[in-house]
Fold each of these.
Amino acid sequence: MARQRKGRAIDGLVLLDKPAGVTSNYVLQRIKFIYGAAKAGHTGALDPLATGMLPICLGEATKFSQFLLEADKRYQTTAKLGVRTDSSDADGEVIETKPVGDYPVEQIEALLVEHFSGEIEQVPSMFSALKHNGQPLYKLARQGIKVEVKSRRVTIYAIKLLALRGDEIDLEVHCSKGTYIRSIVEDLGLLLGCGAHVQVLRRLDSGPYKAPMMLTLPQIEAIAGVGADEKVTEAEKQCDLKALDALLLPAWTAVDHLPRVEIDADQQRKIGHGQPIPCDQPPMDQVLIFTQGEGEQRFLGLGQISDQGILKPQRLIQTAQG
């Protein structure tokens, strides 16, 4: 007999503006507690130093978190020149200091175009969350254990110099999944000859979700009516669940770039039980399956249309069974 999860069966996404100084798991657990959700997960951790876009999936939305992990991202960062740290960010220990030269804007822009545009090879930091034999690299690094980290190919779609203030550089980076901004900053510092580390890092966009859509943790706590008191128990919590649920984005917004197929009630019953059905749409690897109707249509999950015109269910949400 399957063990039933404690909490509400609430589905959707919260676009959290993660604050600095806390882990992604901390804010995940905080949101899960506020919503009283039975299930929750985030879509790509941000370092404690970093702030910004952290989509948190609740309930059935967790089935589509991989799409956001794979999505492009956009960041703004401030690089501190003249100081290198062991983690390549401001949370690390200083390992080298050098004088900062008077670098023309044109020189920096030329380096960005030449070395950090298009497909590039990157060696992730030893302080990243990548795993080696099941252990995150940052845990090994803090134990003084060094392992060989293989380079990886990432894509920088756009990189812009926003400002140059003496020993600080502001950059905006639009990049593919798996790009380490700290590696870009570290490498830029080495190219300039003075070294550099990430002083500020903020994720603005993740896939379809843009910066203006984010909510801060204090905003959500205020709407929930729980305040910022971590010691509030489940029994003492006085949340406005209706107002909270109104903040959620539907699970399908994470995959809204995929084409849609609408099916009738009889087809829904078959799809809900895992049965393939005929479909008059062209072959497609992945489609969104919705119920038919002029009113609010219900999202059922993902499917695939074969060359023979058969719609096969792939990843359905629990409400798909009719």
Amino acid sequence: MTDYIIRRLLLFIPMAIGIVVVTFCLLLLIPGDPASVLLGQEATPEGIAALRRTLGLDDPWYVRLGGYFLNLLQGDMGRSIFQNAPVSEIIFDRLGATIELATVALVLAVAVGVTLGVLAANRQGGIIDTFTMLLAQIGISMPVYWLALLLMLAFAVHLGWLPAIGRGEPLPTALAMALTGNPAPLVDSLSHILLPAASLALNSAAIISRLVRTSMLEVLREDFVRTAAAKGIRRGPVIWRHALRNALLPVVSVIGLRFGALLGGAILTETIFAWPGLGQLTISAISQRDIPLIQGIVLTFALIYATVTLLVDLLYAAVDPRIRLR
């Protein structure tokens, strides 16, 4: 297991370097001039040229890439052109909200997807199976932003049960306050995060439920399941303790991939619900052509996704020892 971990960590290094290079090169293709946007419509060509020299935008791309690498090695992601603040500080202030939203959405997706998938497999061809497959088809087909608007219209505008925009107290802080006897911040925090998290979770829950159903149907046909049933073990323990444990092996990999999808979907969802995370910041940075900030955000998303994928690989190897031999 140790050799497998070392190999995966060594592979992570060139992957991280490749992420930096690809991110930097792709952002060079973004149309628009940050200097022109910053100076406004009345800017003179001389002023724009001077600002471009000051920002280093006139340097060749390979010079800028080399400087960017050197700065990253020192923990410096550059300075935002419009906010005039270190990019790392701006991202750090918003990162917690995005991870919180994506994590809650992933927990909802896994809980709903695994439960519905198991119930559908246990009652193949029945009402629960039909309902689960219909819900999965809707979840896969419906865009995240459209579902977010529908949920906001239903539960915030018409029913008034949940707030439409904003964020309550950060969940870790709210949990700590609830443990000390003050549950009000936790209730407020959950009420704010429920709609955006549900909007993000439906698509992932649909994919997970279909995968769990298919995997469970295969496992339920295995000999060890029939043997357990022949020994007189009730069907409930056979399904939840024996079959599900083996059926979840392929789901582990999908969960890591879905976390990356949730981070991407958070860009639109955060904008709709005015959630103060990286998604909302991304839209603002793109509209302002704030290249250093865009680079920092994209790089952060990519590295988080790569890190989660690495952790999923290690978890999969811990669950299935056959993976370590590859």
Amino acid sequence: MTTDPLPLIGVIGPTASGKSTKAIELALELDGEVISVDSRQVYIGLDIGTEKISKEEMLGVPHHLIDVLDPREVYSAGDLVRDAEKLIADIRARGKRPILAGGTHFYFDALLYGLPEGTPRNEELRKDLEARSLPELMEEVERLDPRRASRLDPQNKRRIVRALEIIYDKGSVPERERTEPKHEIIWEICNPERDVLRERIVARLQSAFDRGLIEEVRTVRAHVGDERLNELGLEYKIIGEYLRDERSETSLLPSLSSKLWHYARHQRNWLRTLAT
């Protein structure tokens, strides 16, 4: 690990835990700028579904890697590492403090420890895997490579498929070569009590529906199509099913609340790895 003159601040926590607010508080206190470490807020037009912070809510704090890419394109962990490294150097060069905030923990891992060793794409295998259900794929990863399964977003089919490509080729997803983080980082963990977090998830989701989430998903769907919509996260996938008459409107809130709580539990598990 390098000795950084201005250590990074990493604001992390499960969905609805208050990361954006905490990052702004720290930026104002430490003369910092925020780098979003979020796999979806990078996309233009995914505003309500990703709880993207507004210009007014930023309180004048510069935010980076928000609204930079058309959602028809794919932004990878490698893209994040490339862009974040440039931003970190630029922010430090101006005497400011880089503050990384977001819930995509795989991106944090990639930035600090490097990307895991890959394997060439196998299009025939990929086609077969993508035809299988998400629970079936996740169960396969858990059976073959429990360590990698514990670090995967169980709702991100694209990354689960990629993990299985590597597992079938190498037996498991190789550990990263780097064992010490590339950057010195101070963690600011937002992790409310279990019951408080569940209430926040439901309240925030209800607010999203009230603010027009269904119409946003309708617009995004028209722009990207159903296949890509399913890759843009739970809110877009589940509401997409409603728009295709595959589920009722009354099922949306309870289904999404349950699935987002499951995802939040997965994020909380990742936080425990910081202490190991």
Amino acid sequence: MKKLTTLIAALFFSFIVQGQSVLHYEFDNSLSEINGSGPVLNVLGDEGIYQQDTLGEVGDVRKWVYRFENNSGFQFDNAAADNFLGESYTIELYFVFDELTSWKRVVDWKNRKSDNGAYVYNGQLNFYPYVYSDEAPVVEGEYTYYVITRNGDDQTVKIYTDAREEIRFTDTNGDALPDGDNVVNFFHDDLAVPNEASSGAVAMLKLYNYALDSSQIKTNYDDLAGNLFFIGEHGKINTPVRIYPNPVADKLNLGLGNFEDNEVVTIRMVNALGLTVLKTETRGGQTVTVSLSSLALQNGIYLLFAESPTKRSSGKILIRR
């Protein structure tokens, strides 16, 4: 699994750009879409619990996740979402399975009536009954960045883990499309061949009404910390911010020269529990100094995010006093 050394901010609230939209579920004590633009996810099987978990790929920062039991999960009601998932779409997940022997269901498009669909099979990816991947970066007990895309123009389905394409096939039978029930189930196995499921947890679900290309998926994966924590909009330009000194004891300088002059820039710091410990606004085109002395912050790693109406950035800060 990829270990990030640089955290670049990017997160997608629900947005509409030339007809392209995304729904984002972050599982912060809720199965609701964070912007209220999509339906609440329906519980399948036993109701799960919300808890904070350590996400090793983003600097061991903790985040709220939804933990589900074996053969349980949740359902996206596509009818209630006005057929948000059409012929073309993307499903973006960050999840962990506790056990990987044999088949473990990830996504079911046929409301449990068919064995066809997306699985992890002994650490390989599988879209049954058509294609298996080689060994994929899916490890028992470790979170995986997992993406499914379907392009309605040529019916191509692709599945990625950690931004690497593992599976590709032509979906001529529509197995990766919702059937007449018009729902998509996650982590809950079908009734045709039952008990192909694992307990686990999910930290993020994003649904796009279009197919992301490989470069966009790579950008999202490189921006994984921002994807999970940043509050902003898709389509903003990633830009560097100079952060010094680092490590820092008190006075933190932020070089915002890559932001537009006099543009409002929101600065936010997040601690290792995923909690915002500082939020302030300033102006772009300058270097600003942020005093940390009054915040009573403990020594350790913090994430810093900067966002303007047009640009976004992030970095990792070590406080050492």
